[in-house]
Design goal:
Elements lengths: L2 H4 L8 H5 L3 H10 L2 H17 L2 E5 L4 E9 L3 E6 L2 E6 L3 E5 L3 H14 L3 H14 L4 H36 L13 H8 L2 E6 L2 E7 L4 H4 L7 E5 L2 E2 L5 H10 L4 E13 L10 E2 L4 E6 L2 E7 L4 H4 L7 E5 L2 E2 L5 H10 L3 E13 L4
Antiparallel strand pairs: 1-2, 1-5, 2-3, 3-4, 6-7, 8-9, 8-10, 10-16, 11-12, 12-13, 13-14, 14-15, 14-16
Helix pairs in contact: 3-4, 5-6, 6-7, 8-10
Length: 354
């Protein structure tokens, strides 16, 4: 299971040893050198613990420190000093996050799984107000709020429709009802206009119906749906993914898609700092990763399928998670005439009524 963790170089140590090695030596050294260097070292000591602050407590009583970079239905991807590892949730006793907002989300998830939506809503709301810019808190709060606000009206409409049907039946006016989709897949086709299959442990779009909500949102055949309401769909059953998309009653569904593009680069264009001249776009590292910040008019990027705010996940199959901007730009420029990049994009689908 843990090949990386069994590596002799990968050692579990307590948090103080792991994050602040040779503390006494650093302090002594600080007193011996200039005040400026001492302040630098002191800042390093106090800032460093926050850089690797998430803690995974394993069932075998070991602790792993690092950063949770991706969380799936059955595992988490954890970034440590020795590289990225995957840990199955069945081997995890608990996760203590560095940020208060993340711990509030964890409590909300716990109560939601237990069916206590009111309690979950309280924690999601606290998380959202703690940091409104934190996307997982925002999406969970808005999704659950839409569900809770809609429920009373939904129940009332069902009661009214039931009484109308009884009245019409008693008067002999009842007509055969329209066939209602039964399975989640049928509902997805009717209200979203999309079909997908499981490929590489993720939902893969193999059909988008013309003029459907999915089509209008820009989803295409060949896309992967990597998240719904900011929750990763990897290793998840397709039935559960369908239910997540259909869960909100307000008609809105927030999806994150992944798409691989092959762009034909233009020649004899002068390189501009911070931008990919041969494709006509600029990039920068933002909260979600290597983000396209600007697209030049009449460029390759403008003519193809790239949009501002798209996040570049891979360049020629190479991950950009820890890649500096200049290195990413140089890598794209060094490719041949065809530059293959993989992006992810947030889209909002407004569900139809069939």
């Amino acid at each position: 299971m843990y090949k990386d963790m069994q590596n002799p170089k990968f050692k579990y140590r307590n948090s103080k040893q792991y994050l602040i090695p040779n503390l006494e030596f650093r302090i002594c050294l600080g007193f011996r050198i200039s005040n400026l260097v001492f302040l630098f070292l002191a800042a390093f000591i106090f800032i460093q613990p926050t850089a690797l602050a998430d803690t995974v407590f394993l069932k075998d009583d070991q602790e792993v420190k690092g950063i949770v970079v991706e969380e799936y239905i059955d595992r988490v991807k954890f970034s440590t000093m020795d590289g990225e590892i995957e840990i199955l949730k069945s081997d995890i006793k608990d996760i203590l996050y560095d940020l208060r907002v993340q711990n509030l989300i964890k409590l909300g998830d716990f109560h939601k799984q237990k069916g206590n939506l009111a309690r979950a809503y309280i924690y999601y709301r606290k998380a959202y107000h703690t940091d409104p810019s934190f996307e997982p808190a925002k999406t969970r709060y808005l999704q659950l709020r839409s569900i809770m606000l809609e429920r009373p009206y939904e129940q009332l409409e069902k009661q009214i429709e039931k009484r109308r049907l009884i009245l019409r039946t008693s008067r002999g006016l009842a007509k055969p009802q329209e066939e209602i989709p039964v399975t989640s897949e049928e509902k997805l086709k009717k209200f979203i206009g999309i079909r997908f299959i499981s490929k590489d442990e993720r939902p893969y779009v193999n059909k988008v119906y013309s003029a459907s909500p999915a089509y209008l949102a820009g989803i295409k055949k060949g896309d992967y749906i990597i998240a719904v309401w900011n929750r990763f769909t990897g290793y998840m059953q397709l039935q559960d993914v369908c239910d997540m998309i259909l869960s909100a009653k307000t008609g809105e569904a927030n999806l994150t898609i992944e798409r691989t593009l092959k762009l034909i680069k233009e020649k004899d264009i002068k390189y501009t700092k911070g931008g990919v001249a041969s494709l006509g776009f600029y990039v920068d590292v933002r909260g979600k990763g290597l983000t396209i910040t600007r697209i030049l008019g009449n460029s390759v990027a403008a003519k193809c399928d790239l949009l501002e705010s798209d996040v570049i996940d891979k360049i020629a199959g190479q991950s950009t998670r820890y890649m500096p901007v200049n290195e990413a730009v140089n890598l794209i420029e060094s490719l041949g005439s065809d530059a293959e990049i993989t992006i992810h994009r947030d889209v909002t689908i407004w569900k139809g009524r069939g």
